[in-house]
TrEMBL record:
NCBIfam families: small_GTP. Keywords: Elongation factor, GTP-binding, Nucleotide-binding, Protein biosynthesis. One of its GO terms (biological process) is mitochondrial translational elongation. One of its GO terms (molecular function) is GTPase activity. Pfam families: GTP_EFTU, GTP_EFTU_D2. It comes from Saponaria officinalis (Common soapwort). This is Tr-type G domain-containing protein. It comes from the Eukaryota.
Length: 446
């Protein structure tokens, strides 16, 4: 009886919304349907925008823009060659000076291969554990230090390579000063542990005194010189050995019994040094609570990104030992593009600083930081700070106010080009066929 007592209006609405011919409903009902559809469409747009933002954020978190810098003959290009090999970017390792008639991939100039030095910075990219790593290999000779300056200006992180025999040298001090100027978080890599006279602890002390690094080792070498066998990771407390013709097979083992005391001492030193600049770890350390590998790793990342600490890795690029661990350190401790603060100057408002979100959804903001005369014409390297650039887009040169079309967008692998259709914030790409002045700020054309 209760069901039969429905009002006429209730029954009419029920009939209208459930009838197969409800598209012929009265205007008021059709309007109601229209508002429902608009509301649903608006909610769907908001959901898509949130999903897209989350997707962009996730993709940006898996990008690293790094440079490799050092004093001349510290092993930068040799290190980069191994990085490209282990990431699958190249399939053969060739040495500096072109002893085999080929030469290192990043030394594309004939003069570089003849003299065995890097003259101009070269860009490349690779993939390691689903992360995209954009790399700029910079010169070490003082005569080409401007190339280092241009590269460090647009990077989010860097690796300082130090020779375990030569230690901190004059150009090491110069490149470290440049990194401080542009506020670049960095790792240190003590190279050439296989050479006679190698002493990583002496080099670490020099980095603290000469470079004023607040640093500590995150690895301990297993043997030195001819007896250099592998590394002990102080964070994970595991030993790693690099087997195979090119050191591609990594064998994980327990810490050697004869090194347990040294490893415990160096790990305590690492925790103590990091605790001085990280409050969370300091609380655990002062409370004498056990510190897990994840606690220590998170703390090292926080203080490295904040430029309060420099983790020190070790190895021998020439002997193919320790390079993969360094790559893991780049992913674990160096920042992604969204973790670095960048700003532009508003020319219409007395050059007031405008913070850049680093989001691909914002307006295009890019910096032309390097010009190069390639084999086929003019190349302009761009660091994209915000927005998306596509092939065929019109972009504005802020310095001149001119609008220019992007004829060809490429990603560089030394002197080789790979055509792409678009690139988003956080990427380093090149525009081919357009002659921009150096250090030109670019934005999307109207």
């Amino acid at each position: 009886m209760a069901r039969a007592s429905k009002t006429t209006a209730t029954r009419l609405l029920y009939t209208l919304f459930n009838s197969p011919n409800h598209r012929h409903a009265p205007p008021c009902t059709a309007l109601l349907h229209r508002h429902c559809r608009l509301f649903s469409a608006g909610a769907a747009v908001v959901t898509r925008q949130k999903d897209k933002a989350a997707l962009w954020e996730e993709s940006m978190a898996k990008v690293r823009n790094i440079g490799i810098s050092a004093h001349i003959d510290s092993g930068k290009t040799t290190l980069t060659e191994r990085v490209l090999y282990y990431t699958g970017r190249i399939h053969e390792i060739h040495e500096v000076r072109g002893r085999d008639g080929v030469g290192a991939k990043m030394d594309s100039m004939d003069l570089e291969r003849e003299k065995g030095i890097t003259i101009q910075s070269a860009a490349t990219y690779c993939t390691w554990k689903d992360y995209q790593v954009n790399i700029i290999d910079t010169p070490g000779h003082v005569d080409f230090t401007i190339e280092v300056e241009r590269a460090l200006r647009v990077l989010d992180g860097a690796v300082v390579v130090l020779c375990s025999v030569g230690g901190v040298q004059s150009q090491s001090i110069t490149v470290d000063r440049q990194m401080r100027r542009y506020e670049v978080p960095r790792l240190a890599f003590i190279n050439k542990l296989d050479r006679m006279g190698a002493d990583p602890w002496k080099v670490l002390n020099q980095a603290r005194s000469k470079l004023r690094h607040h640093s500590a080792a995150v690895q301990v070498p297993i043997g030195l010189e001819d007896d250099f066998q592998g590394l002990v990771d102080l964070v994970k407390q595991k030993a790693y050995y690099f087997h195979g013709p090119m050191g591609e097979n990594i064998v994980t083992d327990e810490v050697p019994t004869n090194m347990e005391t040294l490893v415990a001492e160096k790990r305590h030193e690492l925790i103590e040094v990091v605790s001085e600049v990280d409050d969370k770890l300091a609380e655990l350390f002062l409370a004498d609570e056990p510190i897990s590998s994840s606690d220590l790793e998170d703390a090292i990342r926080r203080v490295t990104v904040a430029q309060k600490f420099v983790p020190v890795f070790m190895g021998s690029a020439f002997k193919n030992k320790g390079v993969q661990s360094l790559l893991d350190g780049v992913l674990d401790y160096l920042p992604c593009p969204t973790e670095v603060t960048n700003y532009a100057l508003d020319q219409n408002n007395d050059e007031e600083k405008v913070m850049l979100s680093g989001s691909p959804t914002g307006p295009l903001v890019a910096l032309a930081f390097k010009l190069e005369e390639g084999r086929f014409g003019q190349l302009t390297y761009l660091r994209i700070y915000e927005g998306v650039i596509k092939k065929g887009d019109f972009i504005h040169n802020i310095n001149t106010g001119k609008k220019v079309k992007v004829p060809r967008l490429v990603r560089m692998h030394s002197n080789e080009m790979e055509d792409i259709q678009e690139a988003h914030a956080g990427q380093i790409v090149a525009v081919f066929g357009v002659d921009f002045p150096q250090e030109t700020l670019l934005r999307m054309g109207q």
